[in-house]
Prior knowledge:
single chain; mainly beta; 1 helix; globular
Amino acid sequence: MSQADVSYSCGSCGYPLNLASSNRITSGIGSEYKKSIKKGFISFLSVDLSRFTQVDEVNCLPFSWIHYSKTKLLCRKCGVLIGYGYKDSSALCGFDSPTSSNSDYKKFMIKIRALQPSEEC
Length: 121
């Protein structure tokens, strides 16, 4: 971690989330990045899933087998909503595997207000 790198903890209880500013998605800092910041979210390439309780949400579109899927990421210590992990939407409804890994996710959207800088630098 570089000197300018920031680690983040849960904004409610201070539990270390192992999120680092170096893992943020900042490519194409332009309109897309600015829109997500205005909505109060930061995109991350990867997160340490062991630091979160995960609650899957799957929504099937009517008249279609295509679905979109997101996983709520809750602080493992206090249960507050930290953000969401978005999975690949090309899977068929009811036919995808129940196990999750970082490689299953396309991106992670983390709520800015749910974070605080960690004291360990």
